[in-house]
Specification:
Length: about 150
């Protein structure tokens, strides 16, 4: 009986450690955008612009951005931004070094703009995460006409 108890204890401990060690994987998505970089930047870096496509409402106070979806609030901290180029956020409740970033890339030859999104997801949630971003960016493109 003692061996069985020891086996169960080790098995439960192993499952807990394995479950808690699941790591998020960084990924990037790139979307062509028919818009000027200045207009696109306003949609990815301002509360009013983000409210048009990313969340139902967005409020900011200093470096804290509150994103509201269906009455639920999530707070992110602005980590870095460069006007006309990129903005990076970190969700307050995440302590694992993850972030999400919107970056504008301009093709030097064609001058076409692209929105590059960097985010993190667990391996088994990767497809859902990508589909969510595709849906969000589809909304963005319909709003800006690009």
């Amino acid at each position: 009986m003692r061996d069985f108890y020891l086996y169960c204890t080790i098995n439960v401990f192993w499952n807990l450690v394995h479950y808690n060690m699941s790591e998020k994987i960084e990924y990037q998505l790139e979307f062509p955008v028919k818009s000027s970089p200045k207009i696109l930047y306003n949609f990815i870096a301002t509360p009013s612009g983000l409210s048009e496509w990313f969340a139902d409402n967005v409020n900011s106070r200093g470096s804290k951005f509150t994103f509201i979806w269906d009455g639920s609030e999530e707070v992110a901290e602005l980590i870095t931004k460069k006007a006309g180029s990129h903005i990076k956020f970190k969700w307050e409740e995440e302590d694992d070094g993850t972030f999400f970033e919107f970056r504008i890339r301009i093709d030097e030859l064609t001058k076409d703009a692209a929105l590059i999104i960097t985010d993190f997801a667990e391996e088994d949630e990767m497809d859902e995460a990508r589909m969510l971003w595709e849906s969000q960016v589809s909304e963005l493109l319909s709003v800006i006409g690009g």
